[in-house]
């Protein structure tokens, strides 16, 4: 049946519901439309009152200023961008691997202090990020990893939320399925890689979204742990564009372009992970 045929077969209630959902989706997409338009506004449109929602005279000058004019500074924009991409990539990999391994051990293996470890993880979920800022700084200083990429990555590796989410999903995997793999000759790590990991892709995709958003927008590590300007990340650079009286006006165009660059990776990752979640949930066989 074609799309037009399906629309014709809808009842009145279904048609009204579809119209309402389309209207809600259009309303929720307005911030995305604004961010896309705001990045291409010329300087005079950025300060119009009342402000305009759609750009009238699109320009690439904001992106040009962001990439080219900052290249003459002590630390160019490309360095901040490179640091953010590198830190986000390695942190995402480290969190997924460490959290998946920890969740598998806590879910399917037996050892002495298992309940104590799980209770500690549940307790860690109660702490706000601000309450652990000082302990994080002391640990980073103790390991002497200030002004290094490890100083960016280490605070995110131990993720109680990631361990909890993945463990809850692994709990749904029948033990008989894992035992059948071991009977066929699979070792423990083969069972984990070939059975557990593919079946937990929905949880891993969710963890990937949460972790990437946290790392990509983090300014704490650059502010507290990095004294070397060349080791700071893109969110810190964007914050420096609009902070202070000197940059509150002059840096707005570059800040708009940088805001778009900060937003697009989150959008792309979310769309990609959303598709993976739906496909994996349909074919994983986990009920």
Structural category is mainly alpha
Q: What overall geometry do the principal axes of the alpha carbons give? A: flat
Order of helices and strands: HHHHHHHHHHHHHHHH
Task: List unreliable stretches of 5+ residues.
Answer: 283-287
Number of helices: 16
SSE layout and pairings?
Elements: H1 3-8, H2 12-28, H3 30-38, H4 43-46, H5 61-67, H6 77-108, H7 114-124, H8 133-142, H9 149-157, H10 160-170, H11 175-183, H12 188-199, H13 201-216, H14 220-225, H15 234-242, H16 252-283
Helix pairs in contact: 5-16, 6-9, 6-10, 6-13, 6-15, 10-13, 11-12, 13-16, 15-16
InterPro entries: MetI-like, MetI-like_sf
Subcellular location: Cell membrane
Pfam families: BPD_transp_1
Summarize the structure.
Helices cover 70% and strands 0% of the residues.
What report would you give on this structure?
The chain is an all-alpha fold and 287 residues long. The chain has two domains: 3-59, no CATH class; 67-283, MetI-like fold (Orthogonal Bundle). It is 70% helix and 0% strand. It has 16 helices and no strands. It has helices spanning 3-8, 12-28, 30-38, 43-46, 61-67, 77-108, 114-124, 133-142, 149-157, 160-170, 175-183, 188-199, 201-216, 220-225, 234-242, 252-283. Helix 6 (77-108) crosses helix 10, helix 6 (77-108) packs across helix 15 and helix 10 (160-170) packs antiparallel against helix 13. The longest helix is centred in the first third of the chain and has 32 residues, at 77-108. It is flat and about 70 Å long. Residues 283-287 have low confidence and may be disordered. The chain crosses the membrane at residues 12-36, 80-104, 116-143, 149-170, 191-216, 249-273. It holds the Pfam family BPD_transp_1.
